[in-house]
Specification:
With 787 residues, the protein is α+β, with helices and mostly antiparallel strands. Among the domains are: 93-211, Sandwich (Jelly Rolls); 247-334, Jelly Rolls (Sandwich); 339-454, Jelly Rolls, CATH 2.60.120.10; 562-750, Transferase(Phosphotransferase) domain 1 (Transferase(Phosphotransferase), domain 1, Orthogonal Bundle). It is 26% helix and 22% strand.
Length: 787
């Protein structure tokens, strides 16, 4: 095969169940869509803006009336700017006061604490504009947000062109251009000075650096405190981070009783600043002589409240002003489950034989693990007996023996497991396991395991099959047609002559990837897809490269976008929306268990396969996230508060997006849509949306829990992860196993004559991919060595 290169779209009739046949208008067909429709998509460009209607004042966004009608572009800021150094600029108190007042009601500053706000103001730099100066040019790339110190400005749409219009004016104390702080999108209007003027500017890199520094510093401090608590040592790094994020800051004045002896305890505390007295007194002031102990910053108390509702054994009183971090037992349980279950789950993660299990599958086993106790000298396992259960040692020690009375072959302690092969077969036990102290174990038998997950051997066999890779030689592929063209090259429909299997070959021009600063996104996409073998995620069959191009050989998904069908239907029934949402939930559960966040869910990124099931495509924004990420990326309608506020996001962003998706499928438009992007962001941050009569009460409850502003309390991000969503009453009676086996009837199926049916795509023939960037595909960094 020769060089090839990129993406497109189309329209055609759908064969539906209980749905009339409709046509897709060709006017909506764009070359950027075809790649998605075969299972791949154009990678987002960092300078890209939402492909939507623009309004004045440097703002742009989707119109409420057109939401769900036009394709929405995604946005992203710089991938990594960790080397950026923030510079402080001196200001008078009067100037600081003017800036503070100007930004007070701005959506990007609404939830910023005083310390962070002051740090942002510190970085703002001074600039002047003479009468007639163009400060912002419509269509230009955006970097700065401005506060006007003095002078006046006019805002124009289409300045200097037919139909130009002045839409706003600014004067001292005004601010404009705030969208530039989030991502680099073309300015929606031109701003011209109408007098000599002075401005203070804040650039996006400084804004992002300050917000990241503030958020990460706060979280790291909390994590450090949490790690110091011995009873929480069993938590994973992700669980510790989640717990730290949920801690509530509390302040107590001198001599204030924080805990009173004899009361029922339900809250745990860590001292972040100050000191407290531990005393037997239950009222009145306390001094050093009446204190049993004095605890300082970094100490903790009340931790038993996370386990039991015992009464407090002593009082805790503030010694001077004290700052605390607290978490109540219910909050802990909501996040991670009972502490005992957390330990069980942690133990299961360490069982090598169970490594093929997903986190969700391990969670299902936790309730079946039964505690048992043995006295010193008791035999827990007898050599030669048939095995039917395995054990995890919770307390005490046991020894492994070949024969009673002989020297032990091994000593097992807390957290160790034994007898796990009993989950595979009932073969005779090979050794004796004897308690060398009083012990407590957790027992899981094979019958319980099989009733939940099926035979373990079947799980292991499926896991091994997923590792099998086909060897497809690049030179063997035969081009059938070009499916579409786009930014990085083109996508071709190809066939393997021996197997007759068709694939979509995505061809990416290296020089353009470098020019558009998409190296990390491209490599991320490959890394994610190589780990993914899931029925609702597009499959990557192979990758290739040469001097000019990178190639991704993908499975074909020829039924078109869910977006197209939703646009034609306007909205779905709850049952239809439930089916498509379930496919997404299953895919996200799989991704999250492997540490990945998807970060760009929308109907445009869901393709319909030949059976009517949807597959998630376009993994350019997918990223492995262990703690928090601070990259602004996604589609404006679907951005959660934590991305808009640059406070750091987790995998919980995907569950927020799921709530938006379900709402849009049922209502026909996203819940927060507004023609002014910044107003839409205000709506998102304030939770300003409403349900119509189309939403049942169970669905309202589900969406409300998915659109939880606090990501630590968002459904899907709690103790049972995706299982909490699967078990929600809106999904009552839904057969998840049948879904994963693709045994459910889809709401409709695309009418495809054969695997090479391209009727959902325009005929591109051998057309050129369009304008390309000049340049070398080798920038000397070796960035594509792992391709």
């Amino acid at each position: 095969m020769g060089n090839c290169c990129a993406p497109a779209s189309s329209g055609k009739k759908y064969e539906e169940k209980q749905v009339s046949q409709v046509n897709t208008d060709s006017e909506f067909q764009t070359s950027a869509r075809a790649a998605k429709q075969v299972g791949v998509s154009e990678v987002k460009v960092e300078v890209g803006a939402p492909a939507e209607k623009s309004t004045g004042g440097g703002r742009s966004g989707p119109s409420k009336s057109t939401a769900g009608k036009k394709h929405r572009g995604a946005v992203s800021a710089e991938v990594d700017d960790s080397e950026y150094k923030v510079t402080k600029v001196e200001k008078t108190q009067s100037i600081r006061a003017l800036i503070e007042k100007a930004v007070a009601s701005n959506v990007l500053f609404l939830t910023v604490d005083e310390k962070t706000r002051d740090a942002l103001i510190d970085t703002m730099f001074h600039t002047k504009a003479s009468d007639g100066t163009v400060v912002i040019e419509q269509g230009d790339a955006a970097d700065n947000f401005y506060v006007v110190e003095d002078g006046t400005f006019d805002v124009w749409i289409n300045k200097g062109k037919p139909g130009e219009k002045r839409v706003a004016s600014y004067s001292g104390g005004s601010c404009f251009g705030e969208l530039a702080l989030l991502y680099n999108c073309p300015r929606a209007a031109t701003v011209v000075a109408t007098s000599d003027a002075t401005l203070w500017a804040l650039d996006r890199r400084a804004y992002a650096a300050v917000k990241k520094m503030a958020s990460s510093s706060d979280l790291q401090s909390k994590e450090k405190f949490v790690r110091s608590v011995p009873s929480l040592n069993e938590l994973s790094d992700a669980e510790l981070a989640q717990l730290a994020d949920a801690l509530v800051e509390e302040e107590f004045d001198d001599q204030r009783y924080i805990i009173t002896k004899g009361e029922v305890g339900d809250k745990f505390y860590i001292i972040s600043a100050g000191e407290v007295y531990i005393t037997d007194k239950t009222s009145g002031s306390v001094d050093e002589s009446e204190a049993v102990a004095v605890l300082k910053a970094g100490s903790f108390f009340g931790e038993r409240a996370l386990l039991t509702d015992d009464v407090r054994a002593a009082s805790v009183v503030a010694k001077g002003a004290v700052s605390l971090l607290s978490l109540d037992r219910q909050g802990f349980v909501d996040l991670l489950g009972p502490l005992q279950d957390v330990w069980k789950l942690s133990s299961l993660r360490n069982v090598a034989l169970l490594s093929p299990l997903s986190e969700g599958q391990r969670l299902q086993l936790v309730p079946r693990m039964e505690p048992e106790t043995f006295d010193e000298g008791d035999y827990i396992i007898q050599k030669g007996e048939a095995g039917d259960a395995f054990y995890i040692l919770e307390e005490g020690e046991v020894v492994v023996l070949d024969h009673p009375g002989e020297a032990p072959l091994a000593v097992l302690k807390k957290g160790d497991c034994f007898g796990e092969r009993a989950l595979l077969t009932d073969e005779a036990r090979a050794k004796y396991i004897q308690a060398s102290t009083a012990v407590k174990v957790l027992r899981l038998d094979r019958e319980s395991f099989n009733s939940i997950l099926g035979p373990l051997q079947d799980l292991l066999d499926r896991k091994m099959k997923s590792y099998e890779k086909s060897e497809i030689k690049f030179e063997d592929l035969r081009v059938i047609t070009t499916l579409g063209t786009g930014t990085f090259g083109k996508v071709q429909l190809v066939r393997h002559p021996d197997t007759k299997t068709t694939y979509a070959l995505k061809c990416l021009k290296k020089a353009q990837i470098i020019m558009l600063r998409q190296k990390e996104h491209i490599m991320n996409e490959k890394a994610v897809l190589e780990e993914c073998d899931h029925p609702f995620i597009v499959k990557l069959a192979a990758t290739y490269k040469d001097a000019e191009y990178l190639y991704m050989l993908m499975e074909t998904v020829m039924g078109g976008e869910l977006f197209t069908y939703l646009r034609q239907r306007e909205r779905f029934s709850e049952d239809e929306a439930k089916f498509y949402a379930a496919c997404v939930i299953s895919a996200f559960e799989f991704l999250h268990e492997r540490g990945y966040a998807y970060r760009d869910l929308k109907p445009e990124n869901l393709l319909i396969d030949s059976q009517g099931y949807v597959k998630v495509v376009d993994f350019g924004f997918a990223k492995r996230i262990s703690g928090r990420s601070y990259t602004v990326c996604g589609t404006p309608d679907y951005l959660p508060p934590e991305i808009i506020q640059s406070s750091g996001h987790t995998k919980a962003v995907d569950w927020w997006a799921l709530g938006i998706l379900i709402y849009e499928m049922v209502e026909g438009e996203p819940p927060f849509a507004h023609e002014d992007t910044m107003q839409m962001y205000r709506n998102i941050i304030s939770g300003n949306y409403a349900f119509t009569s189309r939403f049942s009460k169970p669905l309202q409850d589900l969406i409300s829990k998915l659109l939880e502003n606090n990501q630590t309390r968002r459904l899907g991000n709690l103790k049972r992860g995706a299982l909490d969503i699967k078990n929600h009453r809106w999904f009552k009676g839904f057969d998840w196993r049948a879904l994963d086996r693709k045994e459910l009837a889809a709401p409709f199926t695309p009418k495809l004559s054969d695997p090479e049916d391209t009727s959902y795509f325009e005929d591109y023939g051998d057309m050129d991919p369009g304008a390309e960037y000049d340049g070398d595909g080798d920038d000397g960094t070796g960035w594509d060595e792992e391709w």
